[in-house]
Amino acid sequence: MRILVTGGAGYVGSHCVRHLSQYGHEVTVYDNLVHGHRGAVADGLPFIQGDLADRDMLTRIFASNDFDAVMHFAAYAYVGESVHEPLKYYQNNLANTVTLLDTMRVAGVKRLVFSSTCATYGEPAKVPITEDTMQRPINPYGRSKLAVEWMLRDCAAAWGLGACALRYFNACGAADDGSIGEDHKPETHLIPIILQVALGQRAQVTVFGTDYDTADGTCVRDYIHVEDLASAHRLAIEQIKAGEFSACNVGTGQGHSVREIIDVAREITGRPIAAAEGARRAGDPPVLVADPTRVRTTLGWEATHADIRTIVGSAWRWHEAHPQGYNDR
Ligand code: UFG
């Protein structure tokens, strides 16, 4: 399949690009490099530096390439920032997706896999979370992603778009061969922060809240390896049906607390990793764990990197080998 990947130089996008290429798909990356890294895309793969807001550029690209499908990762993804700058999120994540979809419609490209998030569920009343759990996002980031899901559903009904929204839980880990990995600036995610402490780049990790109603008082998350996310995207794009919108959670179904992750990281790295107890971070639900039944049964997906030691070990190999990440800014 010929696939345009927006945000293909970002964390999840770049791992999907690599995976799709390994499976024989012809991939073109479209990324404005605001948060993405040129070094995350292999030399030799078609790369276009462009912005989703650039309708003329997208129109030209669709006119001059015969794409079968689009994978859409390009978005801002800092929850805290979205609270302070909501319009930045509605513009980039939502309005620019209108532009993408409209240029796809005009060009007759009718398959799309969308990078959605468990943040669309907000604070669910019950875990594990199924796709039928009420979507009540609690921040502009989650709302911008949910609004795109609604648009996809409407476009499926109106002009035959086939779309699948993959709602990821906590993406983590790095490519199996260590070639690419996670590099956010600023970094806000738990595992990279812990590993930066292990590398001596930070003095300590602060545990955000120790009084949650969980086994050890800290938040529980479903950590999903980025290679497993990549295989879910490939299976989704290969199976999309015209005129249908579908959504799948992508997680392992296993929850791990913040303390547990710190302990595993101490074991894997052999470093002490100082941790301090801090206040709760606003907007953090106590427990987010996926029910992955649908992605298994409908897409035939299975996690192959679900073990938390495998996940943290994979992230550690990348961080140890690339202490400055891609070192490009
Ligand atoms: N945490 C800490 N200390 C830190 C960083 C994180 O204790 O320095 C905790 C958080 O409170 C949370 C857990 O570690 O309980 C994981 O936090 P991350 O920031 O790594 O991930 P989130 O669960 O906040 O975020 C993920 C995705 C977002 C998505 C969100 C939905 O990365 O894209 O889930 O809630 F929006």
Architecture blueprint of SSEs:
Elements: E1 2-6, H1 11-22, E2 26-31, E3 47-49, H2 55-64, E4 69-72, H3 79-84, H4 86-107, E5 111-117, H5 140-159, E6 162-168, E7 170-172, H6 190-198, E8 205-208, E9 220-221, E10 223-225, H7 226-239, E11 245-250, E12 256-257, H8 258-269, E13 275-278, E14 287-288, H9 293-299, H10 308-321
Parallel strand pairs: 1-2, 1-4, 2-3, 4-5, 5-6, 6-11, 7-10, 8-13, 9-14
Antiparallel strand pairs: 9-12
Helix pairs in contact: 1-7, 2-4, 4-5, 6-8, 6-10, 8-10
Bound molecules: uridine-5'-diphosphate-4-deoxy-4-fluoro-alpha-D-galactose.
Residues 77, 79, 117-119, 141, 170, 188-190, 193, 205-208, 219, 221, 258, 281, 284, 288 line the site of uridine-5'-diphosphate-4-deoxy-4-fluoro-alpha-D-galactose (UFG).
